[in-house]
Amino acid sequence: MSGRQIMTADEIRRATIRLSHEIVEKQAGTDGLVLIGIQRRGVPLARRIAASIAEHEGAALPVGALDITFYRDDLSMVAQQPVVKGTELPTGIDGKTIVLVDDVLYTGRTIRAAMDALVDFGRPQAIRLAVLVDRGHRELPIRADHVGKNVPTSREELVRVHLVEVDGLDEVEIERMVAAPQPEPVA
């Protein structure tokens, strides 16, 4: 099933550069900043943002990866054998400003799980959120500090982010979920 493209590779590149500038501006520099991508597509996005910051600020920021699998509130509904992707955090997040990076912000549950996981590793001074796409429909009081693109959606739609590092191409698609046919009642 293929969806309608809502972001091209160039639009993703421009959004990533804009996010990098916003993050540095809000922090008033790069001191104490750490970027942590949420597994899976948040990790390459965090690396891209860090590369952009290095290019325009000349500062190499620490970048980490956070696996939230066991912090999810729907773990029992996801899979019997969940796939753990691994957490790799830069040493010492205490007192740092952490920017969590993810591909899509939807209900806020992934971000809540990420914050729960993060505080198990230390006590950051602040936690901020950068997302490539904010599609709305929050179930928790969570908002992104930095957004690449706001995309109004219905709950019947899916937003799919494809990144070269994971999927072999850069694009964002939106598609309508097709309801499964209901079986005929047996008399």
Low-confidence stretches: none
| CATH topology name | Rossmann fold
Measured by DSSP, the beta-strand proportion falls in 25-35%
Shape: globular
Straight-line N-to-C gap: 34 Å
Order of helices and strands: EHEHEHEHEEEHE
Radius of gyration: 18 Å
The number of strands is 8
Largest sheet: 5 strands, parallel
Q: Which bin fits the share of residues in helices? A: 25-40%
Architecture overview:
The protein has 187 residues and is an alpha/beta fold. It is built from five helices and eight strands, in the order βαβαβαβαβββαβ. The protein has a five-stranded parallel β-sheet with strand order 3-2-4-5-6. A three-stranded antiparallel β-sheet has the order 1-8-7. β4, α4 and β5 form a beta-alpha-beta unit. α1 packs across α2. The two termini are 34 Å apart.
Task: List strands and helices in order, with pairings.
Elements lengths: L3 E4 L1 H19 L5 E6 L3 H16 L5 E4 L8 H4 L18 E9 L3 H11 L6 E9 L11 E5 L6 E6 L1 H4 L3 E6 L11
Parallel strand pairs: 2-3, 2-4, 4-5, 5-6
Antiparallel strand pairs: 1-8, 7-8
Helix pairs in contact: 1-2
Q: What's the short version?
A:
The chain is an alpha/beta fold.
